[in-house]
Design goal:
The structure is a single chain. The chain has 227 residues and is mostly helical. The chain has 8 helices and no strands. α2 crosses α4 and α6 runs antiparallel to α7.
């Protein structure tokens, strides 16, 4: 397999353009689904449901983990473009449902500038990290071990916080911003050094997942600072 980094400059440029165009499309679709959830009242209903029992949140997280696995598997095994887009679309909708409660709280119980501020900060961080990944031409695959261990630790803390009812504070959110930033560097490097030029849909899904994780914790920090 010829990787993106090994491909001809023209093919590499096409791959990068397609990947980030699909990423932008995924973000636009995410916003559209969120607007629909808010307009139909589903976002408020989901928030009320989660407020009723913290264990429902565990079920939703578990379901989302399975959805993420299924979406990635669907794209990896896809024999057609339609299947790849189905995988990406399922993942975007799943992320929108997961984000609905925190966005509902941010929109209704904090100041009006919280969501735009978090979105702008996320965009600036993502742009800066992407620039670093492309301009340094470094293979950030060495971050895999850190991300694996950090992911298990973060998951354990989140599970404990839900089960035992304690709140993960600002320090945890800051640590997760660092984790998500490392994931963006790793994913950007991975798609260049380990993906072929026809895997732009899979690449956009990986980047979207990391950007969503970054936005989640940037939003939490901005919300905490506005309280």
């Amino acid at each position: 397999m010829v990787t993106v980094a090994q491909a001809r400059p023209s093919d590499r440029a096409v791959f990068i353009r397609r990947t980030y165009t699909h990423l932008a499309g995924a973000v636009a679709a995410f916003i559209a689904v969120e607007v629909l959830l808010f307009m139909t009242g589903i976002a408020g209903a989901i928030t009320s449901l989660l407020a009723g029992s913290r264990f429902i949140w565990l079920a939703i997280l578990g379901g989302f983990a399975l959805l993420g696995w299924f979406a990635r598997s669907l794209i990896a095994r896809a024999q057609s473009g339609e299947q790849q887009y189905l995988g990406l679309g399922l993942y975007v909708v799943g992320e929108a449902v997961i984000f609905a409660p925190i966005l509902y709280i941010a929109a209704n119980f904090t100041t009006s500038d919280v969501i735009p501020t978090a979105a702008l900060l996320t965009l600036l961080l993502f742009g800066g990290l992407t620039t670093i990944a492309f301009t340094t031409k470094t293979d950030f695959s060495f971050l895999r071990g850190f991300l694996t261990i950090g992911g298990f630790i973060a998951l354990g803390l989140i599970l404990c916080s839900v089960i035992f009812g304690f709140t993960l504070g600002l320090l945890f959110s800051a640590a997760m911003v660092v984790f998500a930033s490392a994931a963006i560097l790793y994913d950007t490097s991975k798609i260049m050094h380990h993906y072929s030029t026809d895997q732009h849909v899979a690449a956009s899904l990986e980047l979207f997942a990391s950007v969503a994780l970054l936005f989640w914790y940037v939003l939490r920090i901005v919300m905490a600072m506005r309280r």
